[in-house]
Amino acid sequence: MLKYIETRVTAGSRDPFTFLLASDTHLARADGRDNAMKNELAARRAPSFPDSETGYRALMERPADELIVHTGDLIDFVSEANLDAAMALSAEHDLFFAAGNHEFSQYVGEAYEDATYRAASLDKVQACFRNPIRFAVREKNGVLLVAVDNGYYLIENWQLAALRRAASLGKPILLFLHTPLYEESLAKKAMEEQGNPCSYLMGAPEELCASYPVYRRMQQTADGVTREAVRYIESEPLIKAIFAGHMHYDAECMLTPALPQFVTDVATFRTVTVE
């Protein structure tokens, strides 16, 4: 069952505006154009996301001129059927999209996911969306919407440079990520309440990452650029709010006294009003 949350953000908009925020739809489709492994994967993965198809249909039924922001993992893996669905949503709606890790997943967990792995499907996935899915900026009523792909728990040099250039315009920024930035209550929820072996957050302290299993430590330990990016994001006064997904639950927290972070679940739509 879909859940709706009303969220209000003060950003210094010239005129108030609203958008619909979604994340982690995890469409798991395959058809005759996809190989047997993809079809078997779809049959196996679809039950893990029982609200996926309902959520996608609800997005497709929204007014065509409504701004929809999606913070990644619209698809669960790369298949012809999933890419068709992504292309249809982007073609028929005003969609602003930030890629998640699953946008580039071939068979979900079959290989270590890094830049080389992503590159194998990046062009094909990018062709389904109107905005650049690894970094994009658009302006709405004097507010910059900035989407950054951090699905592999990293921010790259060129992305940080592009974010700084956006901020140099002197306009307020709403930042859209797939993976939330580390915050203590989110880490505790993931590891203590849910029993996960890691926090699944970007920029977790090194001492916390040291407690992760080897694979998760390799995957989620921030490099120097990423830690610099986190420091910059949390100190840049023009960044007014962060929206992310990835965690498969709803949450709100404060990264600093002035910077809220909103995490959105698989079956949740946020109606965000920006003032």
Question: Can you give me a brief rundown of this structure?
Answer:
The chain is α/β, with parallel strands linked by helices and 275 residues long.
What layout of secondary structure does this protein have?
Blueprint: E1 3-9, E2 17-22, H1 36-45, H2 52-60, E3 67-70, H3 80-92, E4 94-97, H4 115-119, H5 122-126, E5 135-140, E6 143-148, H6 157-167, E7 173-177, H7 184-193, H8 206-209, H9 214-220, H10 224-235, E8 239-244, E9 251-256, E10 259-263, E11 268-274
Parallel strand pairs: 1-11, 2-3, 3-4, 6-7, 7-8, 8-10
Antiparallel strand pairs: 2-11, 5-6, 9-10
Q: What does this molecule look like?
A:
With 275 residues, the chain is of the alpha/beta class. It has a single domain, classed as GpdQ, beta-strand dimerisation domain (Transcription Regulator spoIIAA, 2-Layer Sandwich), CATH 3.30.750.180. Helix content is 31%, strand content 23%. The chain is built from 10 helices and 11 strands. The strands form 2 sheets. A 6-stranded mixed beta sheet has the order 5-6-7-8-10-9, covered by helices on one side. Strands 1-11-2-3-4 form a 5-stranded mixed beta sheet, covered by helices on one side. A hairpin with a 2-residue loop joins strand 9 and strand 10. The mean pLDDT is 98.
